[in-house]
Write a structure and sequence with these properties.
It is a single chain. The chain has helices at residues 6-34, 61-80, 94-120. The chain is an all-alpha fold and 141 residues long. It contains three helices and no strands. The chain has a domain at 10-36.
Amino acid sequence: MARYDEGFLRAALIGYQSEKAKIQAAITEIQAQLGHRGPGRAKAPADGEGHPAAKRRPLSASARRRIAAAQRKRWAALKSAKVAPPKPKRKLSAAGRRAIIEATKKRWAAIRAAKTKAAATPKASKAAKPGKPAAQETPKA
């Protein structure tokens, strides 16, 4: 990166600041022509004269009371219309738990019995072809 002396940098800064001021002035002028007056402000009249949009009138004390009463009524209706609390979580009784345990044990006993019965009965092996000795049978993988 090139090194510049202090005088050159100061001159560059002054030049850029003047360009920035010119651009900002142009932006302000264009916004005025469009009627933009910044955030939250009413548009200026096109001819540049006259009053901006009228301010909102304040509410009277009685109007504020009526509005507050109506809001309290709405909140009361919402609070009274609350949904009933959810049902309490169901608990398993000791007798029910015992019944489930017994049924599970019975089911596993049946599964184990079926496994032992299947292991006890020999599977029918293929009969050796005539003409070949039994030693030459191919083993099953």
